[in-house]
Amino acid sequence: MGAGNFTVDIDEAVRRYADMVYRLAIANTNVTQDAEDVFQEVFVRLVRYKDKIEDEEHLKAWLIRVTINEARRLEGSGWKKNVSLEDSDDTVDSYSAENEGDSSPEEAYLEDEKRESVLQKVRELPQIYREVIHLYYYEEMKISEISRILETNEATVKTRLKRAKEILGKKLKGGIEYGTI
């Protein structure tokens, strides 16, 4: 099954999808160095498999799937199981997020604190829940797209998303609405 007339331009793919791949890697590893390793491996694999990519939609889905798989592989490695994240100075403390332009410094600070609290709780979720939360809220993907990429049915994605929200709700003690995730 070939790509037909579609040709992957590696430089363009990196320009277009680098941020998405890196954000997803960070969301699934929580460690800068690990995320960088995942990022690099994803694009190395793209060079090897570029002829099998069928179109732009397939490229994006392929990149997300490979990023998740590589993060899972890294998490399951013997090395990772024996290294404590608490001992690492490379643990990611925050996603870079832009403040809204019209807010006062105090409002911006409080919004950043609230966002950081939510992101920290998301990072504490088991990986299967972090994946769906990230893809749904941060990549703004539909349930059907997530289902295809994670190679699971839509009901499973919905259940994971619901369970992740419940866990987050308990961890945040109802102080922050789900819609702000």
Shape: globular
Give the termini distance in whole angstroms: 39 Å
Helix-residue proportion: 55-70%
Tell me the series of helices and strands, N- to C-terminal.
Answer: HHHHHHHH
Biggest sheet statistics: none
**What is the gyration radius calculated from CA atoms?**
17 Å
Number of helices: 8
Proportion in β-strands: under 5%
Q: Which structural class should the secondary elements be placed in?
A: mainly alpha
Mean pLDDT: 79
Low-confidence stretches: 78-100, 176-181
Count the E strands: 0
Description:
With about 180 residues, this protein is mainly α. The chain has eight helices and no strands. Helix 1 packs antiparallel against helix 2 and helix 6 packs across helix 8. The longest helix is centred in the N-terminal third of the chain and has 20 residues.
Describe this structure in a few short sentences.
This protein has 181 residues and is mainly α.
Task: Describe how the helices and strands are arranged.
Blueprint: H1 10-29, H2 32-49, H3 56-75, H4 78-81, H5 105-124, H6 127-138, H7 143-150, H8 154-171
